[in-house]
Design goal:
This protein is an alpha/beta fold and about 325 residues long. The protein is built from 8 helices and 7 strands. The chain is globular. The structure holds nicotinamide-adenine-dinucleotide and magnesium ion (MG).
Length: about 325
């Protein structure tokens, strides 16, 4: 247990009880049993969904992530930092010593306020940037507002994502196709382009891709193809920016329990067995992703560029 694990907050304490029992990420522990096999009940949340309403609750590290000073004084912008993986990254970055700005949709204000509270509890600054990433103007203003609020920018995490399962291409609405590309791909291009004016040598960019870039499920034709695009973008930009001293990498999660899943990211009937087909036999928790982002953001990964770090419970990747 750590000091952080005993902290209390305004969150739903009873629902977080299971997470309060967890040991920190540096404790010697069996990855098979670090977290239980979850069997999420069939549930429905409208997009974008809230961590506050997720059943069961996920572990974003509030009671388990222990910082070791690896990002002291850094300033990070994390898109979709209100919930799920982005929230876990925001918590970890703050505990590693970074100030963070997070973007999210206005409907996600309760989740964003919770992350702000946890970041501030770590003694760091949290800048909240509500807005819609399908809007090019918001992509640009979010970078400007992050720079203004943090006093500069050293780390960019392009993490926001949209995922809606559809049985067939014939049933894929054009509006969904366009929005999925706008959020997952175009916003990443636009935000990265805007951020380049502010990033100094030593800065890092990390994009959230996915296992589905390689193991593309038949029900995620649009989403899976955006994730392949993110891998390619990471490799191109890694080469383009390396001579400038800016490193670009990606993290590819496997099945992680977040609001993305019960908001039609998966067919409902598949929720109860979510993540059980991985070699570890369980879904991942958002905080299990955080150390990968911390590693790629910190100077210790100085020779790692254009890499996709897979965090997926053991599924083989190319
Ligand atoms: P999440 O729902 O917690 O996070 C996704 C975030 O995207 C939302 O919080 C929201 O703020 C943001 N977003 C979506 N549409 C937006 C829009 N129009 N404008 C602004 N923001 C918008 O779910 P998550 O699983 O933590 O997702 C984070 C990233 O991880 C995504 O890129 C997702 O594709 C990727 N990913 C998730 C999994 C998984 O199993 N959960 C697996 C592989 C990759
Ligand atoms: Mg969210």
């Amino acid at each position: 247990m750590t000091d952080q694990s005993t902290s209390t907050g305004s969150g739903d304490a009873s629902a977080d009880d299971a997470n309060r029992e967890t040991t920190d990420q540096l404790a010697f522990q069996n990855p098979v049993t670090r977290y239980p096999v979850i069997e999420p009940p069939e549930q429905d949340q409208p997009e974008p969904g809230l961590d506050a309403k997720l059943l069961p609750k996920s572990d974003r590290g509030e009671f388990s992530y222990r910082g070791t000073g690896r990002l002291e004084g850094r300033r990070a912008l994390i898109t979709g930092g209100d919930s799920g993986i982005g929230a876990a990254v925001a918590i970890a970055f703050a505990r590693e010593g970074a100030d963070v700005a997070i973007t999210y949709l206005p409907a996600e204000e309760p989740d964003a306020q919770e992350i702000k509270r946890i970041v501030e509890e770590a003694g760091r600054t949290a800048v909240l940037l509500p807005g819609d990433l399908t809007d090019k103007a918001f992509c640009e203003s979010s970078v400007a507002d992050a720079v203004a609020g943090l006093g500069g920018l050293d780390i960019l995490v392009n993490n926001a994502g949209k995922q809606i399962a559809q049985k067939s291409l014939a049933e894929l609405p054009d509006e969904q196709l366009v929005q999925t590309y706008e959020v997952n791909v175009f916003a990443m291009f636009r935000i990265t382009k805007a951020a380049l004016a502010h990033l100094q040598p030593g800065s890092t960019i990390i994009n959230t891709t996915s296992i589905v870039a390689y193991m593309a499920p038949e029900v995620l034709v649009d989403y899976a193809s955006t994730k392949a695009a993110i891998n390619s973008f990471t490799k191109s930009m890694g080469q383009q920016l390396a001579p400038k001293g800016i490193r670009v990498n990606a993290v590819a999660p496997g099945p992680i329990w977040t609001p993305l899943q019960p908001t039609d990211g998966q067919p409902k009937e598949e929720l109860p067995t979510f993540g059980q087909s991985t070699p570890l036999g369980r879904a991942g928790q958002p905080t299990e992703l955080a150390p990968a982002y911390v590693f790629l953001a910190s100077p210790e990964s100085s020779y790692v560029i254009g890499e996709t770090l897979n965090v997926n419970g053991g599924m083989p990747t190319p």
